[in-house]
Fold this protein.
Amino acid sequence: MLDQFRDKFPLSKDKWDEYMRYYTRIEVPAHTILLNEGDVSKNAFIIEKGCLRLWFNNNGKDITFQFFFENEAVSSAESFNKSIPSLFTIETIEPCILYRIHKNDMEKILKELNEHPDTKEYLLSIAFERQFHYMKHFLSFIRDTPTQRYINLIKEKPQIIQRIPQHYIASYLGITPVSLSRIRSKLK
Amino acid sequence: MLDQFRDKFPLSKDKWDEYMRYYTRIEVPAHTILLNEGDVSKNAFIIEKGCLRLWFNNNGKDITFQFFFENEAVSSAESFNKSIPSLFTIETIEPCILYRIHKNDMEKILKELNEHPDTKEYLLSIAFERQFHYMKHFLSFIRDTPTQRYINLIKEKPQIIQRIPQHYIASYLGITPVSLSRIRSKLK
DNA sequence: AAGAGACGATAACAAAAGATAATAAATTCA
DNA sequence: TGAATTTATTATCTTTTGTTATCGTCTCTT
């Protein structure tokens, strides 16, 4: 279930299996909060089944910042890495099967991994890709209208359209649920 | 002039001076294009004096993505690092004094720096900070109204308000110049 | 199975922003 | 310095989006 991650790491199968023992398989119902905005994150997750969202409270309204699906790693990255209060709440949307790892255990893994010369390259490339991703996502906000952003979403992430409640998608697109509903009816 | 960078690197003064020889001091007039959107970036810059912007063409309209001022390093990061076509044009706003380094020379420096165990940590922290920066900037786009974004800009980056032509600021805020002018008159 | 609550569609109105054009102010530069 | 160009403001009209409210449907929960 976590096999697809193995390929990305410059590690032996044994080492990999050893590290995997740090992960705990958990099953949680829908609408479970895994981390509260303002708390310091102690855990990261990998999704075997289900989907989550990362959201924050803006004057009483909840705004979804990112969605996560099967085989993706989820954390409030800044909070987990730097032990600062999280800007986001992490919440399941569907019932989920997750693999959880504690920060302490992750640090053990990283400590060992750092012996490998390739590791930091790998971490760098991840950080770089994330940065690029945020940049492009941001770009589409400056460049496109809400309607265009919704059309892009249909093309690029159909999973989101199919599995995510519409009012979450609306805040993700930076518009109100009513506005999204209008956009949808015009597109028909 | 580039002294403020030295402190950030775990290097001897001699090594630093050696690397600095790769940089060429150039003076360019306002509205000089240092890199065209679509071209592969071969150079990075450090600003001694003046300011630049990074912009892209969106259906004939130019949209400013980022501003740079004195003592900042400027490049179309993805293009420079990965040798892919740049998403952005880099253009001076004021007459500028810059330090230019060619990608080949930068690679020589990085190759040597990689002997240092601290270097990758440092690069990682830079990538991480950039990612955090984009994320927060993006967040303000989802969360705030154009008026609020303009007020934030006054507080957080007064340089931009003071030195940058208003129509560039407008596109940076994701609105039209006319709309920005209205916002300004309401705030008075 | 019934009731409560959540969700999405739609309508009516208000507010904000875009488009366009005319004009004023500032700046470039010959 | 003065003319030409660029930039900013203002006004008008249109379009888009937000706000609020209503209604029907669906989904939990008990």
